[in-house]
Specification:
heterodimer, A: mainly alpha, 3% strand, flat, B: 248 residues, mainly alpha, MetI-like fold
Chain lengths: 383, 248
């Protein structure tokens, strides 16, 4: 009841806050647009949605379908308003160079839709059907975007001005993050296994990686510059390989160092905390140490190790954005350009993909963890 | 007095680090004498616009203000969703904080600019929102792991629900809350460094100025101070946790 009340409050708030801002050009601050200053069709729809909200809040049934339909109506209204604004930019003295940005109401609307859909997902009996429905909604919205229906949306305009560069930096970002986490995995898994075997080494390893993790990302990037610049000045071979004080090399090293802690910690935990009976049973079956490792310890700790890699990767995608400050490229380029030019929409063009990438890789690895869990262990959890 | 000397004897290395760090931050001559030999070809060694001490002060203010408000709000939220009247929100708050934690701190910080503009306020807001997350999550975990018999015993002694919360549940959950706060503060120090880009001041200002002007000395001057501050905070939390473990 209280939860539905909160969701309803968010839904109603959406219409009493400006949904969009219309700007005459790139730099000028725009004028806010409320849904109630639009033609009756739009605010009429908004009113109906508000009444529906009240109905949903006070109805005793939790119907997942109702919530789904309500969020579809909500999304449609948001898109319809955007479409109307595009056709009537002249009302706000913004014609050729006019652009539309999102305002507070839009972000609250996103929160409302998230709350509605997550509530529906939690209470539904048909989880698969609901996820397919959500994917279809996302696909329809994407289709509208690709067909160019929202060509005056400010983020898309920023995108169109640098679509080539955007794709390049996106790939660059993903590559850099994956390369760093890949290197950290190659170093981290053996280090974690070693830490599980030897106590003396364990303390040293964890003190070091914990220390590295504590250093602020920008400071670590900064600390990389001086030594690498010195190295490339001393050894021309390195310089010809493209290693310099700024650029990809220091970013990759710093990102790798950062990614070590979650991987080493989880590998260690995964291997160290396997119950001794299981190991004894393996020895009893006549397995030698290598076989025990290959057939018992490794499969049992794989989900834990994957969790570590996931944490590293999510963290790394964020830190790669910072790496743009030392000239390593990536989506951070747009963020810091946007900050430099005071163009909020350019910042969003960098930030939103970074967030989506983090969520995407987080979800993918969650699936991988599920698959990698041995069947026996999964059954044991259910018991 | 006796306690202090005993402490200093036990924590020789730590105390030395704290003293050296504070001297580094306060004395420009010390910074100069460390950095100048490394960069013989540079004219400007120290960031000229503001003293490191001032940047350090701004940084500390930002981190402490956002950290303290997040601590209060986070614990309040964590308590609310574990009471009978807030139970309905527990799952949603856990889901939402898990989702928000996949957002990179830089993203939250820079998103604050389109929302609020440049300066101290957006940085404060972003740090505040981001540092609530670990505190809420750990408060919830801590409170949920308090054994049921303990709560029942407290109630059986005639305590009101508020007394049960304050005298039985919170002390039990406090180690978890402290861990959450430690994570928050360390992330905060790191994110506040990037705050230099959105005009919030702090040690990041020297680093960013160095990067823009291609002056590695400024970068190093700020980076050493920022890394040292993170180590300092981590060390203080370590001491606090050790002290709590001894008391148990």
């Amino acid at each position: 009841m209280r939860f539905k009340f909160f969701t309803g409050l968010c839904a109603v708030c959406t219409f009493f806050l400006p949904l969009y801002t219309v700007k005459p050009n790139r730099i000028q601050t725009g004028s806010a647009v409320w849904v109630f200053e639009l033609p009756p069709g739009y605010w009429g729809a908004a009113l109906i949605l508000i009444f529906l909200t009240v109905f949903i809040v006070f109805s005793r049934r939790h119907t997942d379908i109702l919530f789904l339909l309500f969020s579809i109506a909500f999304i449609s209204l948001l898109l319809a308003v955007l479409h109307y604004l595009q056709g009537h930019l002249y009302i706000w003295d913004a014609e050729e160079y006019g652009r539309i940005s999102f305002a507070e109401g839009f972000w609250i609307a996103l929160l409302t839709i998230y709350l509605l859909l997550s509530w529906a997902y939690r209470n539904t009996r048909h989880k698969l059907l609901l996820s397919i429905a959500m994917l279809i909604i996302a696909a329809v919205v994407m289709l509208f975007v690709l067909l160019g229906s929202f060509e005056h949306s400010a983020i898309l305009l920023e995108y169109q001005n640098r679509s080539q560069k955007f794709l390049m930096e996106l790939l660059n970002h993903v590559n850099l993050s994956l390369a760093a986490v890949g290197m950290a995995t190659v170093i981290g898994i053996p280090a974690g296994i070693w830490a599980a075997r030897s106590q003396k080494y364990r303390i040293l390893v964890f003190k070091t990686v914990n220390g590295i993790q504590t250093i602020p990302s920008l400071a670590l990037f900064g600390l990389m510059i001086a030594p690498l610049a010195l190295l490339s000045r001393q050894f021309p071979v390195l310089r010809s390989l493209g290693i310099a004080g700024i650029g990809t090399a220091p970013a990759l090293i710093a990102l790798t160092l950062y990614s070590l802690l979650p991987i080493i910690r989880n590998t260690f935990t995964g291997i160290y905390y396997i119950e001794t009976q299981i190991i004894s049973a393996a020895h009893g079956m006549g397995m030698n140490r290598a076989q025990t490792f290959r057939y018992v310890e490794l499969p049992l700790s794989t989900p834990m190790i994957l969790t570590g890699i996931r944490m590293s990767l999510v963290q790394c995608i964020g830190n790669t954005a910072v790496a743009a400050l030392i000239g390593a490229g990536g989506l951070g380029t747009f963020i810091f350009q946007g900050l430099g030019q005071s163009v909020p929409d350019l910042i969003l063009l960098g930030v939103i993909p970074v967030i989506l990438l983090s969520i995407l890789f987080d979800r993918l690895f969650h699936l991988a963890e599920h698959w990698a869990t041995p069947r026996g262990v999964r059954l044991a959890w259910i018991d | 007095m006796h306690g202090l000397t005993k402490f200093l004897k036990q924590q020789k290395l730590g105390t030395l680090f704290v003293i050296v760090y504070l001297l580094y931050v306060t004395l420009p001559t010390l910074q100069y004498s460390i950095l100048a030999p490394l960069f013989p070809h540079l004219q400007d060694i120290l960031y000229p616009r503001a003293s490191l001490l001032r940047l350090f002060g701004e940084h500390l203010l930002l981190v402490l203000l956002s950290g303290i408000s997040a601590f209060v709000t986070g614990i309040f939220l964590g308590i609310s969703v574990t009471r009978p009247w807030g139970r309905e929100f527990l799952q949603s708050v856990q889901d939402l904080t898990a989702l928000l934690q996949t957002f990179p701190p830089v993203a939250v910080l820079t998103l604050a600019v389109p929302a609020v503009g440049f300066g101290f306020t957006p940085a404060y807001l972003a740090l505040f929102i981001y540092s609530i997350l670990p505190i809420v999550r750990n408060t919830i975990t801590g409170l949920l792991s308090v054994p049921q018999p303990l709560k029942e015993a407290a109630r059986g002694m005639g305590m009101t629900p508020l007394q049960v919360l304050i005298k039985a549940e919170l002390p039990q959950a406090f180690p978890a809350i402290l861990t959450g706060t430690r994570i928050s503060i360390i992330i905060n120090i790191g994110t506040a460094t990037i705050g230099g880009v959105i005009g919030a001041g702090g040690l990041g200002v020297a680093i960013v100025a160095g990067l823009v002007r291609d002056n590695t000395a400024f970068v190093l001057q700020g980076a050493i101070a920022a890394a040292g501050l993170a180590f300092l905070a981590d060390y203080l939390f370590e001491l606090w946790e050790q002290k709590m473990n001894r008391q148990e």
